[in-house]
Every structure is written in structure tokens, then in C-alpha cells.
Amino acid sequence: MRPANVVTSVADVLAGIAISGYFLLHQSDLQLLPIILLCISTVGLYSGGIILNDVFDAELDAKERPERPIPSGLISKQAATIFGGICFFIGIFAAGLYSTEAQYLAVAIMVSCLIYDKFLKHSAIFGPVNMGLCRGLNLLLGISIAPASILMWWYLAVIPIIYIAAITMISRGEVHGGSKKTLYFAVGLYALVIGSVVYFAFANNNLPLSLAFLALFAFMIFRPLSRAIQNPVGPNIGKAVKAGVIALILLNAAWASAFGVWQVALIIIILLPLSMWLSKAFAVT
């Protein structure tokens, strides 16, 4: 399930809810149930996607990563498939308990995950874009808490698509090493993502705190990436990928701050040590 990664998906949804204006509109009568349902939904959807990813990769992992749960024999392929299906069901069902819009997005996330896992993972171009689409839709899942906000902010899904596409490109060098050209391209995409958040923070007059979160975000992603650029071997690239995934929490905190909900930004930040702690016990990539 990659528990450390699942925590970052919850941060996506919380950032989406902040972007939607839900917290600002319901300060005096905040309903927690919709927030809880969407968080349960993203946990189920992300877990299902990750589990089925390992199911489809079982034969390849037996050669390249035999320590993983399925090739090592810790869990059977059939059991993992059933477990992944249950997680997908939970994700779609929880979203449907809140709204039709959220359920449609949940189904779209599941379909995107399966397309990536089965068909596009090894595509140099469409694979990273498809993986990024899963995260973009996840942000929209949070925004769907206020259905009218989907039409207003749908294009923001492009930002996580760009970011995750960059991480996915980098991750292709985890086993056999990567190319510096790819890593430098990722630097450019990371900078584009940071610049986008700065733009919205400035437009909403919420720049100072957002810059603080973005500074931490930049430090967390660029430090291991610079080491990978200097020596693009598998272990260094793996650390850059791991940092990029967990740093999503800081990026989401910056989003919440950029849209004026600093309290939620602080709640999201609390997820960071939890994700880092889980990353020590469970694989991230």
C-alpha cells in the first residue's frame, strides 16, 4: 500500500478542499463528515492503484526487485488483486456517500490508475503524464467538496500532473541509473511548479507564509536531486524520488496557504513527520 505515500494523497485532498473555499465559507458551521469521506476515498484509491501496480509488475519485480511482497512470497498475487479491488471499492463508495461529482472523479482516478498500471507505465511520454493525471484528479477530488469550484479551478490539476510526471521520469533510473539530461529537465519542471504556486499566492495576497512552505519544499526536493545529477546511480535517484513523493505534503501546504487557509496548511504539515516515519518502515518507490 506504500503507507507513507498514502499520507501524501490525503494532503492532496486537504489542499483541494482549501482551494475550493470550503473552509473559508464554513468557518462557523464546518462539517467534518465530507472532509473525512473524501480523505477515506483518496486512501482507498491510492492504495488500490499502488497494490495493482505491484500485481501487474510481479514478473518484472521478480527479476529487478525480488524483495517486494509479491515476488518474495509474503503475499500471493491473487490475494493482492483482491485487496486492491477492495481498496478501490472503498474509495469509490466513500466518495459516492458525499456527492455524485466526487464519485465520478473517484472512478476517473481508478481508471487512470489501471491504465497506467497495465498499459502506459513503460511509455516514456504517456506514462509520466498518466501518473501525473492520477494526482491531478486527486486534487480535484478535494476541490469537489464544493462542486461549483470544479469548473472554477479544474486547470490547477495541471500543476500536480507536471510535478508527478517529473518524479515519474526520474524514477525510471532507480534500478539501472539515469541520465543527467532527464534530471536537468526535472529541475525545470520543479521550478515551473514552484513558480505556479508563487503566482497564486501573490494574486491572493498570501505570499509570505506560502514562500516559507515553498522554501522547505525546494530544499527537500533539490538537495537529493542535485546529488543524483552529480552521480546518477540508482540509489541516488531512488532518494531523489522518495524525497519528491514525500515533499508533496509541503507543496500541498503551500497550496492551502496560497489560498488563505493557513490553519489547514499547518494541519497538512503535521502529516510530514508521519509520512517520513512511515517511509522508514515501508517502501516509497
Q: Specify the number of helices.
A: 15
> Secondary-structure element order, as H and E?
HHHHHHHHHHHHHHH
Which class in CATH terms?
Answer: Mainly Alpha
| Strand percentage | under 5%
Give the low-confidence spans: none
> What number of domains?
1
Shape: globular
Major sheet summary line: none
CATH architecture: Orthogonal Bundle
Mean pLDDT across the residues is: 95
First-to-last CA distance: 11 Å
Using only C-alpha atoms, the radius of gyration works out to 18 Å
Could you estimate the helical fraction of the residues in percent?
Answer: over 70%
Q: Which structural class best describes the helix and strand composition?
A: mainly alpha
CATH fold group: Tetracycline Repressor, domain 2
Query: In CATH, what is the homologous superfamily?
Result: UbiA prenyltransferase
Number of strands: 0
Please explain how this structure is put together.
This protein is mainly alpha-helical and 285 residues long. It has one domain: Tetracycline Repressor, domain 2, CATH 1.10.357.140. Helix content is 81%, strand content 0%. It is built from 15 helices and no strands. The chain has helices spanning 3-20, 22-25, 32-56, 58-64, 69-72, 77-98, 100-120, 126-143, 148-153, 158-171, 180-203, 207-230, 234-246, 248-258, 262-281. Helix 14 (248-258) runs antiparallel to helix 15 (262-281). The longest helix is centred in the N-terminal third of the chain and has 25 residues, at 32-56.
